[in-house]
Specification:
Blueprint: E1 12-14, E2 41-48, H1 59-68, E3 70-77, H2 81-94, E4 100-102, H3 105-108, H4 112-121, H5 128-134, H6 136-144, H7 146-152, E5 162-163, H8 169-172, E6 177-180, H9 181-186, H10 195-207, H11 230-235, E7 254-256, E8 259-261, H12 267-281, H13 294-301, E9 311-312, E10 333-336, E11 358-362, H14 368-381, H15 384-392, E12 399-400, E13 418-419, H16 439-443, H17 457-465, H18 490-513, H19 518-532, H20 534-552
Helix pairs in contact: 4-18, 6-7, 12-18, 18-19, 18-20
């Protein structure tokens, strides 16, 4: 789940090490081995850390350091994606990059294009032989999971970087809407099923004082720009709105049979935007929804004077309201199933796999000893034991074995572990270690039966997501992580994608807010897509998809 922190002023190099008895200094080519006096191999590691984590003193760091004879020399960024990416790019451009990039997908992961470029430049070390010789658990995951192998293996057959694999069930269906069901009950309203139903509910929220304070301070619908699924949730009642990457980042392409197309020029897409615009014009969608950040949304949700939020389209409720709130307001929100639109459509986006970036990359600065130690460490993370310790911390500190009466998230399976709700900070690596976080593993965690407690959040999300499962249109779904672009076109593709995303986002916002008239300016928008490069973008994607299909048969 995304967490946006304040920006860093400069890149902090955490942990000053006294490296006595080093075998040699690292050469520019990175072939030399650097060890500490007690025989640990030094690995310069570039990674994000939140404000509660000090990786030098972290308990998992000590466990990994002792077990695999590694002395980490951390180069940290915060969880703020923009500065994190900038610092990574500066490091690579200057040539002063680390032995290991160890990243988090939703903070700053490498893209396919970046992996291809760094692999071809010789910066990224091919991992496939290292894996075969030292990492049986990673090899097993690659051999048993076709999608994981496809997304890990570049067109030239090399594995230059590994993505995480995290079967986050609720993340697989990110286009959710959370509504104040206490307000529904008070006003005698049913959970909305159609786009017309939703309009009537939002109108009632706006005009009938559901919070009971005698003021017209209710906000029928809002969100924030980092976490919003507003357009996607509403659009899916008209046209399938494809997911492109982590946390619901949108895609521009779908499939029509084996033809790669874009939905953003279709008549159905136009009707979806007109519907959203109509809600906006009526004041049913907050103007701030398209400008405010996550902190501002939280402030609305936690307004100490009154509960003011009627509905919020985001992945999970903790984005907009404090869980376990003293007044219990967080318990008021439940998920709205996908709406049915005027043509009977009721889609939801599919985010699969849920981790789409590349997060583990060894570079040519790493000595052979460092490469082997790092891949062996990662291989341990691929075990259930490694997952439990890395994600939660040591047994007895971050988690315990299940006890009598404990039930798993999936109550049909035997529970495997019980996360401690009162665990101290800085005891685990958390999202850094979700490399073989399979559905079977995740569903085996003990979760309380009460879904409206903070401890029961995972069950709340599990149950809510059941409402969305099955509404994805797999016939239109483009297998983005498995389809690698032609390496020679990866730069062009990345530029086209950036330009097209900006163009589409700006125009959609203009149509929704009314600064552009969708009836008179739609044709110009469609024409502008071609001049921005949509035809070429679809051509490149089609070529890559055709090659993928030919190779998978």
């Amino acid at each position: 789940m995304r967490s946006t922190m304040s920006k860093m002023a400069a890149l902090a190099v955490a942990g000053t090490l006294a490296l006595a008895a080093c075998s040699s200094d690292k050469s520019a080519q990175g072939a030399a081995n650097e060890t500490t006096a007690d025989g640990k191999v030094v690995i310069d590691t570039f990674t994000p850390a939140d404000q509660n984590t000090n990786l030098d003193t972290n308990q998992v760091t000590k466990i990994m350091s002792d077990r695999f004879k590694i002395q980490f020399r951390w180069q940290n960024t915060t969880y703020d994606a923009g500065p994190a990416k900038e610092k990574r790019q500066i490091a690579l451009a200057s040539g002063d990059y680390p032995d290991l990039f160890f990243l988090i997908p939703w903070v700053d992961a490498f893209t396919q294009a970046e992996v291809l470029k760094l692999g071809q430049q010789g910066v990224a070390v091919p991992l496939e032989d290292l894996i075969k010789e030292n990492a049986p658990n990673i090899q097993k995951a690659l051999d048993s999971n076709k999608t994981y192998k496809e997304m890990s293996t570049a067109p030239d057959g090399h594995i230059y970087a590994l993505p995480q694999w995290a079967d986050c069930y609720h993340c697989t269906y990110p286009d959710k809407l959370w509504i104040n069901s206490a307000w529904l009950k008070k006003l005698g309203l049913q959970m909305p099923k159609t786009t017309d139903d939703l309009r009537k509910v939002l109108q009632a929220f706006k005009t009938q004082d559901p919070n009971g304070n005698g003021k017209a301070d209710e906000i029928p619908m809002t969100t924030d720009v980092q976490d919003s699924s507003l357009i996607a949730y509403l659009m899916n009642a008209f046209a399938y709105d494809p997911v492109g990457a982590n946390n619901g980042v949108r895609s521009l392409i779908t499939l029509d049979g084996d033809k790669v197309v874009t939905p953003v020029t279709s008549p159905q897409w136009k009707e979806g935007l007109k519907y959203i615009n109509s809600l906006y014009k009526e004041g049913l969608i907050d103007q701030a929804a398209f400008t405010q950040n996550a902190a501002a949304l939280q402030a609305q949700g936690n307004n100490p004077k009154a509960v003011v939020l009627g509905s919020v389209p985001v992945l999970w409720p903790g984005i907009f309201v404090q869980l376990d709130s003293k007044d219990g307001r967080d318990k008021q929100y439940d998920a709205v199933p996908p709406l049915t639109g005027p043509e009977g459509k009721s889609y939801t986006g599919l985010n699969y796999p849920t981790s789409t970036g590349y997060t583990f990359m060894l570079t040519n600065k790493a000595s052979k000893e460092a490469q082997v130690a790092a891949i062996k460490m990662l291989d341990y993370i691929y075990t259930d034991e490694g997952q439990m310790i890395t994600n939660m911390g040591p047994e007895g500190v971050g988690w315990t074995k299940p006890g009598p009466g404990d039930i798993a998230l999936d109550d049909k399976v035997k529970p495997l572990y019980k996360p401690k709700q009162d665990a101290p900070k800085n005891i685990n690596w958390g999202a850094l270690g979700q490399y073989n976080n399979t559905l079977a593993y995740r569903n085996a965690q003990v979760v309380p039966a009460d879904i409206y407690t903070g401890a029961g959040l995972e069950r709340r999300l599990f149950q809510a997501t059941k409402l969305y499962e099955g509404h994805e249109d797999k016939s239109q779904w483009f297998p983005q992580t498995s389809v690698w672009p032609d390496p020679s076109l990866s730069g062009e593709l990345a530029t086209l994608q950036t330009n097209l995303n900006n163009y589409v986002n700006q125009n959609q916002l203009a149509f929704i807010t009314g600064s552009k008239n969708i009836d008179t300016e739609w044709d110009a928008y469609v024409k502008g897509l071609d001049s921005t490069g949509m035809t070429r973008y679809l051509e490149i994607q089609q070529q890559a998809y055709d090659k993928y299909k030919a190779g998978s048969k």
